[in-house]
Hints:
Elements: H1 6-17, E1 24-28, E2 32-37, E3 46-50, H2 56-70, E4 74-78, H3 87-93, E5 97-107, E6 119-123, H4 127-140, H5 153-159, E7 167-174, E8 177-187, E9 190-197, H6 207-221, E10 226-230, H7 236-241, E11 245-255
Parallel strand pairs: 3-4, 9-10
Antiparallel strand pairs: 1-2, 2-3, 4-11, 5-10, 5-11, 6-7, 7-8, 8-9
Pfam families: Acetyltransf_9
Domain N-acetyltransferase: 120-262
GO molecular function: acyltransferase activity, transferring groups other than amino-acyl groups
Amino acid sequence: MIERHPVEAxxxxxxxxxxxNPTTVVNDDADLLWFNTAGSNSWLNGASWCAxxxxxxxxxxxxxxxxxxxxxxxxxxxxPSCGPGDLERHLDAAGxxxxxxxxxAVAVDTRFPxxxxxxxxxxVVKQSEVREWTDLFxxxxxxxxxxxxxxxxxxxxxxxxxxxxxxxxxxxxLDGVPVSCSMAFVHQDSVGLYGVGTPPPHRxxxxxxxxxxxxxxWGASRGASVAVLHASPLGAPVYQSLGFRVxxxxxxxxxxLGDQRxxxxx
Length: 266
């Protein structure tokens, strides 16, 4: 397998790490990395790395069928190292819908801005704090907090707690109240930043930047030399202000399903 850039390697490693969640099945095949999680959403159902051959259409169909079986959308994250060269044509023909997502990177030893004095940042270490994190994530993206029904709640309790986990959740608090969140995942020399969010009433105060930097510094303490992420239109200006620069485009392909009842929160 050719890992063209740490931004690709990080997301592939995170997908493989989903296997530590008891309800996730990860298939790390010779030609395809794909995974399914009953009771979750498209973040934990789909595929990423692939080097598909003549059976490309059948393999694409199998990923979609597996998501249908657990009743959720699927997301297939493709990048320049995925194959075949006309993979996009095959995914489009199978009904997958693309969204181009710029992938960005910055050195972890970049000089970042100071944390806002009023903001207290903590690593999530308790199961109850995982629910605070998922509720805040929902509020950050216009979703009514789903509490105990959040599709990430139990998976994150298995994947993001414990000193040895490569995954860590962060909460920013203002007078004890959660106002911003982020997630970091370490793989070899990279730390990936995911799930950065701040509810609208608290935006514009530098909290998302501070939570991003908290994840970067944690990754640096674990040996990472570069920080990577996939930027949404909302987040891109924040990341650019921290020194992140676009290194390649990734494509998040989603497969709509008629019985889908959840919001897409990727």
